[in-house]
Amino acid sequence: MRILERRTDAIKVFVVCTVSLWFLLPPEPIGIYRVGAEEYEPPTFVAWPEKSLGLSIDLAGFKKDLDHVKPDGRRHLMASHPTTGLNVSVTLEIVPTQASTQGCIDQLKLIQKGPLATRAQDVKLDTAGKIPTLEYVLHEFEGIRVDQKNVYACLAQKDVYADIHLSKVQFTTADAPLFQTILKSVRLQSAPSEVKQIQAKPQPQIQPQPQIQT
Questions:
Q1: Are 175 and 168 in contact (CB under 8 A)?
Q2: Which neighbouring-strand residues pair with 76?
Q3: In-domain check, residue 153
Q4: Which helix (H) or strand (E) holds 60?
Q5: How far apart are CA 99 and CA 93, in angstroms?
Q6: Which residues lie across from 160 on neighbouring strands?
Q7: For residues 109 and 125, is the Cβ–Cβ distance under 8 A?
Q8: SS3 (DSSP) at 2
Q9: By C-alpha distance, which of 172, 115, 147, 178 is closest to 22?
Q10: Which of 73, 75, 105, 112 is paired with 95 by a 20 to 30 Å CA distance?
Q11: How far apart are CA 110 and CA 104, in angstroms?
């Protein structure tokens, strides 16, 4: 069983950091119509150096703000998109037992009962989809209007849980595709080099043509 309580404090810190960074952004409209001009970037692979299983996620155009292993051993990545204002937090955790979808759902339910989600609006827990998710909108934070959209997702495979948190202040419905693009890209898999080796097919050997002697 994971120690789920420690995730609540991490979520609080992430929300505070996101709101603080929001005041540094230029006061100009942002949305998906500003996206698409970036050059192609391969998916980001988040993993431990000694473990091949990790999370593949499309972070094209994002800037990595944190990329490290926490003192408790969890793998952590935080990234932000300078144009859209979308923030991404990824946490990978190794557990001593088999990770499961039910473990993901329990994690999301704990977040749903937390101090932020209970003050939010449009709260929706989806456990029927391929990836369990929890979403809500926090219109105010400490008396400040933020309209912050939050989406939590969780994946489980073997002995690894991947917790994903997406957030954006000044959210409008036009920004919804930004969240979906990220969620559709995430998957727990082996390291990209190993995947290429598995998917690679042996090339047929070309037999030399017999020469006709005259």
A1: yes
A2: 68, 91
A3: yes
A4: none
A5: 10
A6: 94, 157
A7: yes
A8: coil
A9: 147
A10: 112
A11: 10
Q: What is the overall mean pLDDT for the chain?
A: 83
Q: Which stretches in the chain have pLDDT values below 70?
A: 1-38, 194-214
Domain range for residue 146? Answer: 5-199
Q: Would 91 be classed as within a structural domain?
A: yes
Candidates 67, 80, 105, 94; CA nearest to 20 is: 80
Residue 213 located in a structural domain: no
Six-digit token string for 89: 């937090």
- Pairing status of strand 121-126 against strand 87-94: unpaired
Q: Domain total for the chain?
A: 1
Q: Which two tokens stand for residue 51?
A: 């473990």
- CATH value at residue 132: 3.40.1000.10
129-177: pLDDT as tens digits:
899 999 999 999 989 999 999 999 999 999 999 999 999 999 999 999 9
Single pTM value for the model: 0.77
